[in-house]
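Supplementary Text 2. Reproducibility record for the structural model of the 84-residue chain.

All settings were left at their defaults, and a single model was retained for analysis rather than an ensemble. We include the record here because the model underlies the residue-level annotations in Supplementary Table 4.
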Amino acid sequence: MIDRMKEVVKEDFDRIADLPVRWNHNFRYHRYLLSFVPLASGLALEIGCGQGELCRLLTGSCRRVIGIDLSPRMIAQARALCMY
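Retained model, structure tokens:
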């Protein structure tokens, strides 16, 4: 049952990744969350990073940022949008 629910969620977020709109409700909180991150921080881990918007913003304060997500399509888009 749990494995099936996990698969349903993954499939839903894969479909969301394909939408042409690049905004979600989390954007509203990014500036607020960043206000708690000290400059020159070490490692940041974002769980459920989606297309990596917050991860990209965290690179301004953190030496290393790792984002993970259940959706392979979200991760692919996050990688495509990152500048290495």
